[in-house]
Every structure is written in C-alpha cells, then in structure tokens.
Design the sequence.
C-alpha cells in the first residue's frame, strides 16, 4: 500500500487503533468525520493523516485501496458500507466481521515489539478488554527491553506472566535493571502472589463473581516478600464461574466465584495440582463472601505454617500428608462436620 490512499470513515477510538497500524506504512491516510479528538488533530498537524469534515464522496471511496468504517452511528455505518460496496472497494466495518470484506487483529504497540490479538472477528468486547489488560501489564518500555536484549520477542504465559523466551545470560543483569525501572522485577514466580485469575465479572459475560479484585487483594496481602518467601511454593488459582478458565481445580488453593442470592460467594478447594502429580482439589465446605475470603486464605496458610515439619515440606506436600481435616477445623471453627 506504499503511497496508496486509504480512507477511515469515523474518527472513533477504534479507528485510531487502525490508523496507528497504518502509520507504520507509507499509505496516504484520510479520515472523515465531523469532529476530531486531540490525537487526530495532532496527527494532522504533523501531516501523518489528512482530516475531512465532510462525508466521503463516492469517487474518494473508489480511489482508495481499502477503508475502515468506524462510525458508531448505525445508520452512518450502513450508508457508508453501501457506498464501499457500490464502489467495489474492500472495507472493514469495525467490530462487525460478518459485514466486512476483511478484518485486522487488535494491535498493541510496544515498539519495536507488536502484539496482535486475533479472534476472527468474534467477541470484540472481550478482545478490547484483553487489549486493555495487556496494555496495562506490558509497559511501553518492555518492548524496548525485548528489542535490545531478547531478540524482539515477548510472550504472555498461561500463568499470566510476561516471558522473554530468548534472553542470553550475559544480558540478565541489564534486563533486571531495566525491569526494576518499570516495576516488573518482583521475584515472586511460583509464590503466593503469583496468582492465575480469570477475567471474572469485570470482563466476562459468563461470570458469576469477580476474580481480579480477589487476586489483587491477595497480592496486596502477600506483598510482604518475607511472608510469601516464608510460605514458599504455592499456586493460587481463581475462576469467576464453574467454567474454570482460571484452573481453580488444579490450584494448591483453588477459589471458585459463585453467586448466592445475588451475592458473590467464593468456594475454596485445596490440594489441586497441575504438575506431574496432577490432582483435582477437594472442596472445603461452604463458601465465603469476598470480605471473608482473604481471612479464610490466611487461616489456611496459618495451619500450614504451624504444622509443616520444615520449610522443605511445601504446602502441597503438607496437604497430602494431613488432608482436609485441620484446614476445615480452621475454616469452620465449632463445626464438627462442615458440608
Ligand atoms: S471461568 Fe467463567 S468467569 Fe472466568 S473467564 Fe471463564 S467463563 Fe469467564
């Protein structure tokens, strides 16, 4: 598309993401709308894009190699789409795969690294939220570190950590110093605050409870390095409904968010393991409210810390030795048989 005209109809936030993608090429970008936000005006000032306050004429659409339709108004989307069809110019109706000629993935620019999220046009809201989450956890400068030291590659692992898969040993110190500057140098892999949490009620339409705030509260609770170092290896996994995307069944401590009479309620399982000795966790008993849950997890860990034979007896080994009873006694004091 070098030097070719591309048109964007509708100066929306989603259109801006497409423009950022196009700015990596030498395409001639024209944006049509009646009003433009600050970023559009800035790009126009530096002559990266051209702004037009009228609707695109048929001949402009015909001359374009392709276009994006980003209007939010349904009538406008329909009308401009019809013009593209009549002109025979390929177009993407943003967030509407079925009515588009092509789609493009959501792009996260961490130059020089680019992260693309593709969903074949399905679940646009989920993709938008995923994009926001990744933008929040992968700082702008992480791309620079990956470029300078790790062959331009960043991966997000299923344990929700950022991975630089190809990092030469001699660069370790420099990368660590770089990570310190952007607040990502916490040495907590495999410890209590290294939690897997599904999107939960904040982002998932299937959810029955929130997961992310629970993970954040636990993270704050364990933020004292000494406490989580003392606890040692521990996998906490949280799902916001029975679909179990957060893998709570195989968490040493699994948390399942449910809903009881309109109130979030969290059930705890213990003893799950996704490792070589794979096991499903055992249900401890009645669930807890979000407020009670953090204290319940604390009580579980107190049982472990008080009862382990030594630091070498990890939480999961301790659980396999003693089973559920001491944990139930701590979670449901005064009940001989919690159901
Ligand atoms: S476990 Fe449930 S709430 Fe969490 S992401 Fe999966 S479907 Fe959504």
Sequence:
């Amino acid at each position: 598309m070098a030097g070719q005209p591309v048109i964007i109809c509708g100066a929306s936030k989603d259109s801006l993401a497409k423009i950022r993608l196009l700015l990596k090429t030498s395409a001639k970008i024209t944006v049509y709308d009646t009003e433009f936000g600050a970023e559009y005006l800035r790009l126009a000032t530096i002559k990266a894009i051209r702004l037009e306050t009228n609707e695109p004429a048929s001949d402009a659409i015909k001359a374009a190699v392709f276009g994006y339709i980003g209007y939010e108004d349904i009538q406008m989307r329909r009308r401009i789409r019809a013009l593209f069809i009549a002109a025979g110019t390929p177009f993407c109706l943003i967030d509407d795969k079925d009515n588009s000629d092509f789609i493009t993935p959501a792009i996260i620019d961490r130059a020089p690294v680019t992260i693309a999220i593709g969903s074949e046009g399905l679940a646009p809201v989920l993709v938008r939220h995923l994009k926001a989450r990744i933008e929040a956890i992968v700082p702008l400068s992480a791309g620079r570190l990956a470029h300078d030291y790790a062959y331009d590659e960043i991966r997000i692992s299923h344990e929700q950590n950022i991975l630089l898969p190809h990092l030469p040993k001699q660069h370790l110190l420099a990368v660590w110093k770089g990570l310190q500057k952007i607040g990502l140098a916490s040495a907590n892999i495999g410890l209590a605050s290294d939690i897997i949490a599904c999107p939960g009620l904040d982002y998932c339409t299937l959810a029955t409870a929130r997961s992310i705030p629970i993970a954040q509260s636990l993270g704050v609770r364990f933020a004292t390095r000494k406490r989580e170092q003392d606890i040692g290896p521990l996998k906490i996994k949280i799902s916001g409904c029975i679909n179990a995307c957060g893998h709570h069944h195989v968490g040493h401590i699994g948390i399942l968010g449910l809903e009881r009479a309109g109130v979030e309620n969290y059930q705890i399982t213990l003893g799950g393991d996704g490792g070589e000795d794979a096991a499903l966790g055992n249900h401890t008993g009645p669930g807890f409210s979000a407020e009670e849950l953090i204290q319940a997890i604390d009580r579980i860990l107190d049982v472990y810390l008080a009862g382990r034979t030594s630091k070498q007896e990890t939480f999961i080994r301790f659980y396999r030795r003693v089973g559920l009873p001491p944990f139930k006694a701590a979670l449901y004091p005064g009940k001989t048989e919690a159901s």
Q: What stands out?
A: Residues 290-307 form the longest helix (18 residues).
